[in-house]
Structure of DUF2850 domain-containing protein:
Amino acid sequence: MEKTKIVKLLLTTLPVSFAIGFSALIYFSYQDFVNPKHVYGRWIEIGTPQYNTEVLELGENKVLRNERFIATHFEFDGKKIYITTGEGTFVYQIVGTFKSPQLKRLQPNSPPQRFVKEGYEDTISEEGGGAKNRRAALSEHFGS
C-alpha cells in the first residue's frame, strides 16, 4: 500500500514539475528576447555617401541621432523599435542576421534607410547601391 502511494505521488508531481520548469524556461527566454540590451549601441546608416551618413545611438536612457539627443527612451517588442520624438514616431525593424545585425526604417518610409550595428560594417557590401544602379541605367539609356 505504501509503494502505490509513492508511485502515485511521483506520477503526479513529476509532470507538474516539468510543466513548471518548461513554462519558466519559455518565460525567461521571451524576457531575454524582448530585452532592449540587444539593440543598445550605435547603428550606422548604409548605402549613403560618407559625408551624409546618419548615426543612430540607442541607450538605456537616451536616443541620439548624429550625436544629438532626440528622445529619453524607446520601446522594443523583440522585432520593432519605436522612437517617439517631437517630429513623430519612427519605427525600425530588426533585419539581417546575428552575424550582420541591421535595422530598416519602416516609418516614415521615405527616404528608405538601413542601418548596420557598429562593428559589423565589414559584413555588408557597399557595391551596387540603388543610386549607383540608377546612374548606370541613365547613362546606358542616354548613351545609346
Observations:
- The beta strands are 41-46, 55-58, 63-65, 68-71, 75-76, 80-85, 88-96, 101-107, 114-117.
- The mean pLDDT is 86.
